[in-house]
């Protein structure tokens, strides 16, 4: 008898579970619009204009001729003006055929005028939503985000895809690593400031203009890509790709490919008014493009020497700019903190502009390509 | 509480007929038309002969028994017994014994019709299938012998692989009506005596009317009757049986069944094809890992499809999103119905293929696989991505070497599917947890079912998904608690002797 009752109890619980969960809201993948890029811009009067891009995958009878339905869909773009980012999305739902879902969001764009007023407000929602991944790219747009998003680009009709791949492939090469997670790490971290890529619509293409410096939640300035991205990357993190062109003489340029660089920091007198920071970069490279030369060994030596000097100058230049602006996207304060007892953030920022920063690059060129 | 279907059944006992003497017994037997009862006469000598024509070999009766009965002058049954060139003859008055023996194919000889004393001469007909290839456990290399329906032939097949006096055989009769001969075979001194006692006791206490096959026995003596997982493995390969016995397991052979049941078993055994032992260990391990992956894929692929497409669109890679959405765009059903339809179609095809004769069965596979599959995709009833997944899952489930485990895997996919629809990935995890706890509790002859993994027995991992080389397998499985745990001498087994000087 007791055994019977146990069975009935079990069955009852199972039935209850099914009843309770039977009406769970579902997000069947073809019944939603997956928002993949979202952009905010200043609409004046404390309002923002939000634009979302959702790809529309072919709804046609694409099943007939076997090969499947890999047809490149078009994208649908919605825009609305409102006070907050969440409100914008709610407003956009009223125009959308299917529910707009943010789970596959890959790019968040913020217009530069809005970014100058403060960024965190617009990212907070994405930071809280568990559906949104952490490898979402955040970027500042020089110009209107709506114009950038609501456009058909030749390389990919899906603009969100274009943006994602653009940033992704540059991170693999010359651009320092950035995404939502890194942004918030830098933003909330002590002795470190965030940076974001700055994009610009350039005719039929989108271009990375450079590294946007963020200070106290506001976008304050731009480091041009061509000049500073490579040196920023090798000072910021170990990397194993990227190319750099240097000028040997007036008409003699040479391109060096980075095949692995490591950066090490050393700090002296961290608490004093004039802390000393040594940034030691160890760079292995290969020469990929060079004019004809007779003696490769000698040539390599010469190139190494020039490259070392050039990079050290650039590094010095970069740190000077950062010190002048009072921002620290390289996280020097964080490095000092790890060397210094009772480190104090407030004090550090007072000392930072006077800090002595030495950039020391060790260049090791291993080969000049497969021809002599 | 009284269940309406549990009403007491009328007791339907067979009419109790206990013949009082031999005359009555033969009279009772004569009611069956295949019973012969006649007076055999030669010169002055005569005797009464009775037997069942259908279970005695008539040829041997005519050629080897009848000519010898009156060879010399006979006065009594002992004289006849001395005349016959046949062993195992028996003179008895015991009615019970006479009846049993005659039903097994013995011939009864009496001097006079109402003599209570009988000479029983064995003359059973040996109608047998030839020993042929195993049907379900085919192998590419290795022995090609399979068990047949005759118990004696099967024991012969095992015993000739293990010519040991220690190979013990215990036989009993099970089944009120069928009186099936059931024997257990083990090696005394290797097999754990506790295991032997347990299995022997379970067989002895079987209360059932008809034992048709060894699977009936294994179903009755199994530890848990509610589990969908088979707890004893059955094999039709004598080589596999012999090697299991040599490991310290016990084989149950049933007359009339071409399958031996091997006890106790762990879950890993069901994923081992005996072929694995005929190839080198790297390849065997690779194949076993593929099989494991195939089973995992077969169980989880469709539920994952349902769960992800219904609840978790976030985890779909960007590049796959376009393919999935556009293949699903025209489907009118939610993913669960789509999946159920296709899964059931595959099950139908399997069942139809299994029930049909071989030649027609192949056509069914082609008709089902190609025609129904492509047609349903073209008609927009199923998405082609799911069709690929379901077909691959079906294919993967065929890699399970054991038929019973294959059936179990077929079944357990459906709870996973339903859980995936109800709770998404959490449902799959829940369902998996449910099965896992069930497996952890399961025993086979009192020994843990998922043994080398839990409880963890590292020495037994040597023959699971990675099979280490044969000469490194020096111990018998620990979970069997063998009385002699060493297979061979460790140092001598590792030596390589090229030239002995």
Question: Major sheet of chain B, described briefly?
Answer: 5 strands, antiparallel
Helical amount of chain B: 40-55%
Low-confidence stretches of chain A: 60-71
Mean pLDDT of chain A: 86
Q: Please tell me the total number of domains of chain B.
A: 3
Strand order of the largest sheet of chain B: 1-2-4-5-3
Order of helices and strands of chain B: HEEHHEHEEHEEHHEHEEHHHHHHEEH
Could you state the order of secondary-structure elements of chain A as H and E?
HEEEEHEEHHEHHHEEEHEEEHHHE
List unreliable stretches of 5+ residues of chain B.
Answer: none
Query: Any idea what the shape of chain A is?
Result: globular
The helix/strand class of chain A is alpha/beta
Subcellular location (chain A): Membrane
Pfam family, one (chain A): Spore_GerAC
Membrane topology (chain A): Lipid-anchor
Domain Spore germination GerAC-like C-terminal (chain A): 210-369
